[in-house]
Amino acid sequence: MQLRRRQKHGIKENPCLNSEGIVPLTCVKEGAKAVMTHSSGNVNVVRRLSEMGLTPGCELQILRKCSFHGPIEIEVRGAALALGYELASEIFVQELKANPDEN
What we know:
103 residues
């Protein structure tokens, strides 16, 4: 007996396309710098993130993104952290523009 899956015929919104520039951490490219704006998790998630130094307004850099929804390595306040993909998708950031004066 074969099971059939029901397909949804709606249009899925791409979380990486946002007119305000605020996107999930999972949408930021490797090497880019961003500022955390907020997180969408529950109280325990917010508490855990703040224990790791991830608070609104902090600057972070994406060091490495693993393929197939693997962990994302970031640098925050001089410390390297590895976040699971699900946790990283609950962290919203605004990407910083590259400054051409920095060399």
